[in-house]
Amino acid sequence: xxxxxxxxxxxxxxxxxxxxxxxxxxxxxxxxxxxxxxxxxxxxxxxxxxxxxxxxxxxxxxxxxxxxxxxxxxxxxxxxxxxxxxxxxxxxxxxxxxxxxxxxxxxxxxxxxxxxxxxxxxxxxxxxxxxxxxxxxxxxxxxxxxxxxxxxxxxxxxxxxxxxxxxxxxxxxxxxxxxxxxxxxxxxxxxxxxxxxxxxxxxxxxxxxxxxxxxxxxxxxxxxxxxxxxxxxxxxxxxxxxxxxxxxxxxxxxxxxxxxxxxxxxxxxxxxxxxxxxxxxxxxxxxxxxxxxxxxxxxxxxxxxxxxxxxxxxxxxxxxxxxxxxxxxxxxxxxxxxxxxxxxxxxxxxxxxxxxxxxxxxxxxxxxxxxxxxxxxxxxxxxxxxxxxxxxxxxxxxxxxxxxxxxxxxxxxxxxxxxxxxxxxxxxxxxxxxxxxxxxxxxxxxxxxxxxxxxxxxxxxxxxxxxxxxxxxxxxxxxxxxxxxxxxxxxxxxxxxxxxxxxxxxxxxxxxxxxxxxxxxxxxxxxxxxxxxxxxxxxxxxxxxxxxxxxxxxxxxxxxxxxxxxxxxxxxxxxxxxxxxxxxxxxxxxxxxxxxxxxxxxxxxxxxxxxxxxxxxxxxxxxxxxxxxxxxxxxxxxxxxxxxxxxxxxxxxxxxxxxxxxxxxxxxxxxxxxxxxxxxxxxxxxxxxxxxxxxxxxxxxxxxxxxxxxxxxxxxxxxxxxxxxxxxxxxxxxxxxxxxxxxxxxxxxxxxxxx
Amino acid sequence: xxxxxxxxxxxxxxxxxxxxxxxxxxxxxxxxxxxxxxxxxxxxxxxxxxxxxxxxxxxxxxxxxxxxxxxxxxxxxxxxxxxxxxxxxxxxxxxxxxxxxxxxxxxxxxxxxxxxxxxxxxxxxxxxxxxxxxxxxxxxxxxxxxxxxxxxxxxxxxxxxxxxxxxxxxxxxxxxxxxxxxxxxxxxxxxxxxxxxxxxxxxxxxxxxxxxxxxxxxxxxxxxxxxxxxxxxxxxxxxxxxxxxxxxxxxxxxxxxxxxxxxxxxxxxxxxxxxxxxxxxxxxxxxxxxxxxxxxxxxxxxxxxxxxxxxxxxxxxxxxxxxxxxxxxxxxxxxxxxxxxxxxxxxxxxxxxxxxxxxxxxxxxxxxxxxxxxxxxxxxxxxxxxxxxxxxxxxxxxxxxxxxxxxxxxxxxxxxxxxxxxxxxxxxxxxxxxxxxxxxxxxxxxxxxxxxxxxxxxxxxxxxxxxxxxxxxxxxxxxxxxxxxxxxxxxxxxxxxxxxxxxxxxxxxxxxxxxxxxxxxxxxxxxxxxxxxxxxxxxxxxxxxxxxxxxxxxxxxxxxxxxxxxxxxxxxxxxxxxxxxxxxxxxxxxxxxxxxxxxxxxxxxxxxxxxxxxxxxxxxxxxxxxxxxxxxxxxxxxxxxxxxxxxxxxxxxxxxxxxxxxxxxxxxxxxxxxxxxxxxxxxxxxxxxxxxxxxxxxxxxxxxxxxxxxxxxxxxxxxxxxxxxxxxxxxxxxxxxxxxxxxxxxxxxxxxxxx
Lengths: 755, 755
Fold this sequence. Notes:
The structure is a homodimer. By secondary structure, the first copy, chain A, is α+β, with helices and mostly antiparallel strands. Chain A is built from 19 helices and 26 strands.
């Protein structure tokens, strides 16, 4: 009961925010909308078609895309229509075929409009009629693994994908069809289809989740095309008057409709921070991006009075900028949470995002450079705008800078900071749990040089759409390894994961920013605190990327200050990639490899080497992809050093056999971990010459550590010493500090000192 | 005594072959040569300088190279001369500085000639004078590890490198110097230098080895510049009247001057087969290429009467073509023997090779395409020829085809076959031992798709020039792992390496070609026999790459027929790279990883998985770099299957942690291993779509196996069956065969049948 009440209040609030109407006034809103008779109107518009036809042949990137799409669709027409009875999981034939069909239908619809060639309309019509014929006979999909089974696909999610694309195809051939044909399709295919993924599947539809966003968009877009206000409302606000069991979970362990929020607007409101950060991380933002933007564009075109692109201070367009900034130098998204590596802004959804952002945003010329790299545009009004921009030489480089992205609907639930300097990128995560796709990785980070990982974030344990690997779905090692804290570059206390690896607890908390500073282009710093991951223990981590004239490249400085109410064992791993070159300590390598532990991810690590640390600094150098790297970390002589390798208890070879170096400090209450990572030099197997293969750091030393300040001296091999002081408490930009260290006074204003 | 006699006979024979003179007639030969007064004459010639100056500014690739070289040398002049007292191993400062100096001297010499700017001549002179000043005071290099210590460097090899380049620089500024200056340099630097690397270091100089080739070229080139016939003769024929202890070995375990052969001509005669294959393999050929070609060019220019490019039927130029064919689709050399991966035709020595081959060969337009990819040319006569060829649009693709390269001075000591079909390349090695850099890898192979390894050859265990890894030299794991048979994709008998891993035995033997067939562009086959690696056991391996319409890509078929006089244990590893996707058998993964064995390389393998094989075919699929692969191998149900990983007993992390799948057959006398490897489909992390991820082979089956024939049926998933029959004995192109299998008669002409 309480849930329903909240839900109704929410709807009213949203309607007011939108400056539109309360629930009771929907009929008037419809009257303000475009006429339903002019098609296409949803994404490609009648005016857009005119403009495109006028420019064809003079807009190279558009013309090229059109040619490729035409070749693809012509080949499909040649091959003939295939609408098989649904049978397979992802990666199987029927899955792949229906997936291909949705793309082909969409593209054929566009070609019909742009080229004015009826063969494309006929192809769309014929295939839709086959779907109509089949759909009305379909039971639930025979594969049972999903929490919400579809009909064409094993999960409603994919059915929704289908409808998002196919509603655009339908819009394109709407006027080509007779009323009778339209009635047939709408009655037997589209409405039942929309109902199945919504009313019949509330556990899928009625919540805040990227799956639901697809569902909402699917229902809304077909609603816009059919001018069906009930579906449009269901899309925007969720299923009316629905009660759900709030304790159910989805396949990934996420809550189903935790708090009654649902519908497209709630899916914008909740997961996006005011900075445009999407709480599940960039991999899922990328996935959700398409329905968010394409439905928004449809709403913008058909229901302009909703002002959807202004909603929540324009967060949809902001989110595109955030997402582009969450990619490395090669355009690959940082694999935060359950992110599959290699996904990049070359994916189709990002073509949509970039084109829409350019067209409906403020025509950022940097986006044109990305569009050029993507080498294709949308075949619609926004793609035309981008093509014209490129043609008119408006493209400028898209410069990614250091950026701090808040998390949470109001931007108050931690965030992600990216520090960039020259080719070095540091991704520091101090966000909230990240929904069901979140990892237990508070204050973790990953480090890149020129798009290559120096210290990796493992990403997810899944081979998306590769049927041989668990049907292409999440593997059990995703939970037992990839989500666990020990799989990340952060501190693990007593071999347990943050929040004991419990989603229910983790999702109640978030880390808190201490400060972020990127004004000084030589020194970029982010600092954040985590107080809930291990009750009774506080972790304050300050990470800097420093460009100093004594160093060839910017180096990373990492200060992790741990304060606890009891003695603990701390493990601090470094997931370096590449070949060990040198250490400044002796280590033993065991004859047989044994596991490091028996739970919380430790059961997946073999121990490959063991050492007692030297008393001041422990150093490890490695070589990866032609670059040298050195970790220098302050140790005491009761610290243990471990070399580990992923792959234990992995009975189906689901995990990559990658290494880590680990610092273990036992029986300690409060402590400080201070490390630097240098990228230096290069090696080419062609010239066989090794350049600057040695570390430039002679010593790292803590010269002060109080509750208010931590100060670290960095002495280079030539004996030059620099001092970094971070403010642990009073860290505002305006704060003025005076501090005496070794009888010398330091005064500065701001969050940190470096000199 | 006997050795000296042979050596003298050899010299006489060579002189006669060359159509020149016997030892006693040298003075006349000199009279035929170019005048010694015209400089430059060695590589860059006076005429070449005129031609280059006339074309400058109109030959883009030459102009661009010149600009880059000028910028580099100008920066060095700006930075000032540094000639430090020798101290370090490779990778250390003094090593790298002297190495850089030789390149800079050479380039500055060229710039002086081409740009006619005295500042470059002065720079060369000043630096040479510093070397003169220092060299006369130098003891042996302080580092003691080499079998032949240099003075500037820790090994004579690098001293020789220096002199090969610096003699060119000296030639360029010869006329700029006063006679007094020349006398000073020649007396205190060049002659003692040449003597140290030859007379004082016969264990380095006086043998057939790539090191000696550098030594010979160094002595010969400075001899040509100084017009010193004694040095020229020493270069061509070795040190006169020298007796060496034939039982000594070098650092790599190779013999020192095994049979008295020495000098540049012997170094052409012995290691090159008539096809141009260099017996140490492409990595060392690449290294030796520069002195071979640059000294040959010098001889061609200064002693044209020697007709050096016609020597041994033009083998030097042929060898360049062979070397280019020993590279993958990306131009990287196959890492046969001790080859470091990543070395490619982008290396400087191959710029020399390509330009010289074009200029002094028959102007193959395919070489121009490689030169374009190299994006630079030699700044001399041959570089000018290439630049003009490119400018005049003569470049055509360099098409690599299937090729069989014989090994041995007469081409009778086995060889290397490369089978190419579309993007698939199979490298099948049935060569001789390959000198001290050889591996115990009889009948081994590696497999590539589009330049990426499918089944790898491990290469060497060394990080060339990376000081932190054993001074950049061979690591002990090179011997204990990389050279061992188990490190290769071939059969291991009773856990021992071929020839018991003994170089003395291995270097007496070679495998023997059964047949090579590349006429049919759909079916390429190589077949060879090894009878000595395991006394009493004969191995006949037939490898085919087959393009069949039932398969997406060409597949590999591998038939290894083992005949023995006793029961043995056979291990048959497949060094696949990538992630295991699927098997058709159950396997167990141990909780702890133990080593597979205790010697012959087995001590470096951990066992990661164990299975009993199914009764007909065992299948393993994996994913690597976005491509799918499947191995299908015929097994019986007493075979064992193992997953192994490299890295055991590797106390300094010198080895890469890479996997293998291994078939183990125990207690068996004669046996047959039949396997197919398919490359199929693709996966993109951007589209997340998995295409053709399953094997197309339903079954492999042996339908006949006699001493004369082996016949294998390949049935694909649609039930289509093809038959491959290989002739084990009478395998000539002309042989006619009639064979009854399962009551059906097969008749064919040639080495194999496929249909």
